[in-house]
Amino acid sequence: MATRFLLAVSVVVLLIESRVATMFSARLIHRFSDEVEAVRAAKSGGASVSWPQRKTMEYYKFLVRGDLERQKVMLGSKYQFLFPSEGSKTMSFGNDYGWLHYTWIDIGTPNVSFLVALDAGSDLLWVPCECVQCAPLSASYYGSLCSLIYGASIMQDRDLNQYSPSGSSTSKNLSCSHRLCESSPRCGSAKQPCPYTINYYSENTSSTGLLIEDILHLSSGSDDGSKFSVQAPVIIGCGMRQTGGYLDGVAPDGLMGLGFGEISVPSFLAKSGFVRNSFSLCFNDDDSGRIFFGDQGLANQQSTLFLPLDGKYETYIVGVEACCIGSSCIKQTSFRALVDSGASFTFLPVESYRNIVDEFDRQVNATRFSFEGYPWEYCYKSRVVFVNSSKELSKNPSVMLKFAHNSSFVVHNPVFLVYGYQGVVGFCLAIQPTDGDIGILGRNRRKNFHAENFMTGYRMVFDRENLKLGWSRSNCEDLTDGEKMHFSPPPKKGPSNPLPANEQQRTPSGQTITPAVAGRAPSNPSAAPTQLILSQFCLVKFLPLMLLLLLHLIIPK
């Protein structure tokens, strides 16, 4: 019995040692290698296969495109970007339209077009509908809408439209029993259409009507220039009655809320899996811009976290740690601010405002002056009349907002230029005080006076998924145009800061770690002994049977 036991233990030890010593190796083949190209050519029946040459621009475009497609598969979103079906371009029309940015969208079946204002400070998308009290909808009523932009008018001589739920085959009322109906306590019954009333920051400005479910028409662009139509179900406000600024020309054809709320368009697109839970707005210095849903910005963009309000993320609030004028950073200028694309101008809490304008006034080389009709307190008269506004702007100190983790937002031209008959006659610091401890960072450029404000020249990324605001300098190019993506070939020299190979590496905490040493594959992997691999595979395969045999020998009969 003892002999059998010792024999069995010896065999088991040999089997374990043999199993532990087993090593499988495989050769890694790049997807653009000669081997893969040969396989692709064989599968295509000998036909020519489009294959990028290594280290060419086309090669890197292929790699980026593949990475983006892989990212979409891994993260579960169907598209990288979405934008309105009539294009991603946005435009500001000046005072006639309240200095806001607008874009064309299509709603319903058949689709009807609306020129909606873009507002990151609210949630609901509403359009004029079965109007009881709405703004005029004739294009001729708004003179500045016919201004030519890049040789073509964004209005295209089109009248504004009114939405009719009964005219859309895809529309249906949102009932009072729906979880997104916030007015359900005022409903007479659960089946009644859900009413809504939204009051905005502007005095006596509101929209009232019923909530409707319908289709928003969008497009998805890819790097190769192809575009796909996307129909996204959303909730729309059938705006029957507007008041205040909405009757005076601000958003006469509707407004798209881009806020955190579940009822906003970005929320619906993310929840339905169309795109990532993020969007971007870009504002160019010629009053044009872009909007992209799903855009999470550049890898090297600067960013800061959104802050909750009363424990909830309902608005895009950020925390400014300090403000710098020129090269001087001022104490006691920290504040919270609402980042609002629907706000025409920038407002700061009184204490921060006073410290900032005092420092600006100290540094600026100009004489204080009051221009009639201008709301800003700190205005200045030019010493001479400038025909070229850039000369005047270059003399003004810049404004920089500092955020946590050394992020900074530079406002290169924080003033409004005042024009006379012969050129620039003065300028005003484009900041106003506000009551309370939360300011508002507006985004507009007042084109009649050639004035730059806080978001102009930036691609602003509202990354709701990661609860952060991102920004990078931009000329607002079309992100779906592959020709505008810039690639640079790798440098011929080695990396400027290579990782250490056999030396110790340091962790961010300062501790040292020894680098791992990778095992080497055979110089000619295809020449690996096939018989050895097969014998090891057979050994593993029959290991359970051998163990059963050993147990039979050990257990006494």
How would you explain this protein's 3D organization?
The chain has 557 residues and is an alpha+beta fold. The protein has eight helices and 30 strands. The protein has helices at residues 2-21, 34-43, 57-75, 265-271, 350-363, 389-393, 530-541, 543-554; strands spanning 83-84, 89-92, 101-107, 112-119, 125-133, 172-173, 195-199, 206-221, 227-243, 255-257, 278-283, 288-293, 302-305, 317-320, 322-325, 328-330, 335-339, 346-349, 367-368, 379-386, 399-402, 408-411, 415-419, 424-429, 431-434, 438-441, 458-463, 468-473, 505-506, 512-513. Strands 3-4-10-5-9-8 form a six-stranded mixed beta barrel. A hairpin with a 5-residue loop joins strand 8 (206-221) and strand 9 (227-243). Helix 1 packs antiparallel against helix 8 (543-554). The termini are close together.
Shape: globular
- The percent range for helix content is 10-25%
Strand order of the largest sheet: 3-4-10-5-9-8
List unreliable stretches of 5+ residues. 144-153, 444-452, 482-541
Quick check: average pLDDT? 75
Largest sheet report: 6 strands, mixed, barrel
Cα-based radius of gyration, to the nearest Å = 32 Å
> Got a strand count?
30
What fraction of residues sit in β-strands? 25-35%
Query: How many DSSP H or I helices?
Result: 8
**Structural class determined from secondary elements:** alpha+beta
Distance between the termini: 11 Å
Which secondary structure elements does this structure contain, and how are they paired or packed?
Layout: H1 2-21, H2 34-43, H3 57-75, E1 83-84, E2 89-92, E3 101-107, E4 112-119, E5 125-133, E6 172-173, E7 195-199, E8 206-221, E9 227-243, E10 255-257, H4 265-271, E11 278-283, E12 288-293, E13 302-305, E14 317-320, E15 322-325, E16 328-330, E17 335-339, E18 346-349, H5 350-363, E19 367-368, E20 379-386, H6 389-393, E21 399-402, E22 408-411, E23 415-419, E24 424-429, E25 431-434, E26 438-441, E27 458-463, E28 468-473, E29 505-506, E30 512-513, H7 530-541, H8 543-554
Parallel strand pairs: 4-10, 5-9, 17-26, 18-25
Antiparallel strand pairs: 1-8, 2-3, 2-12, 3-4, 3-8, 5-10, 6-8, 7-8, 8-9, 11-12, 11-27, 13-28, 14-17, 15-16, 15-21, 19-20, 20-24, 21-22, 23-24, 27-28, 29-30
Helix pairs in contact: 1-8
